[in-house]
Amino acid sequence: MILAKLNLTKTSLHSEDLLNLTSTQIDEWFGQNLVEEHNNVRDAWSKKANSLLKECLLSLGETVTLRGLIKQLTGIDCLEFVQPQLIRLCASALDEGVASWLLPERNQLGLYGAWRAMLIYDVNAHLAQLPTAQQIIEQLPDNAIDTIIFHLSAHHIPQEKWGVYLQRLALELPGWAGMINWREHHREYSPENDVKPKLADFLPEMVRNIASDLAVTPSHVNLKAKTNESLGHLGRGEGIAVHAVALLYKA
After folding, report:
1. CA distances from 167 to 154, 176, 179, 231 (A)
2. Which of 86, 155, 175, 154 has its CA nearest to residue 126?
3. For residue 223, how many other CB atoms are within 10 A of its CB?
4. pTM for the complete prediction?
5. Which of 139, 56, 123 is nearest to 88 (CA)?
6. pLDDT along the chain (251 residues), means of 10
7. How far apart are CA 94 and CA 82, in angstroms?
C-alpha cells in the first residue's frame, strides 16, 4: 500500500517473503533481475568500449599507426603480411651485388616507380587477394610523394600529424628505413654492384645441411672453397666444379 501511494516499485523481497513464492513468481522475479543486471553490464561495457575507441582514434597519427589501431581492435598484425613484401622489395632495390635478383630499372625509375612497373610481372601476386586490387593499382599516382599524400588523406590522417605519422611508420621497418634514409642524405654514394658473393661465406650452412642429410655430426664433414689459382674458366668465374671424397670404414 505504501509503495503504491508513493508510486514506487518493489525491487527486492524480504527473506520471509521468499518462503511463500510460487514457481511463477520465482521465474518472474529472477527474470526481471537478470534482465536488469544484463542491461547494466551491457551499458557499462558499451560505455567503456566507446571511451577506449575514442582514445585510440585520438592517438592515431601521434602514438599509433593504422597498423597499431587494427592490432589493438582485432589482435591481428597486418605488418606480418606487408613486411615480407617490403623486405623483398628493399633488398632488391638496395642491393650492391649480393641479391640474386635486381629490381629492374631502379636507377631510372626509383624504388616506387620500379615497383609499379614490375607489378604486372610479379609472380608473387600478394595483392591478388584484394577484390579491388587492380582498381587500387590503377588509381596510384605516378609520383611517390603524391601517392603518400593520397593515402594519408584517404585514411583521414590529420595533415598536422603527417610528419610524426610517417616517422612511426618508418620505425616499424627500422633496418631498411635507416638504410634508405642514409642513401637519401648521401646522394653522392653510388654502389657499383660488383660485390661478388664468396662460397666461403656459405660453408657453415652447407656443412650443417650435408651433415643432416648424411645423419652424421658436422665435425665429420669438411668443405673447402678454392679459386683454382685464378686459372682457366674456373679461375675466371665462368664455371664451377665440385669434388666429393667419402671415407668409409667398418663399424
Report:
1. 18, 13, 14, 52
2. 86
3. 13
4. 0.52
5. 123
6. 60 54 63 60 77 81 84 85 81 73 76 81 67 79 88 87 85 77 76 60 78 84 79 78 79 68
7. 18
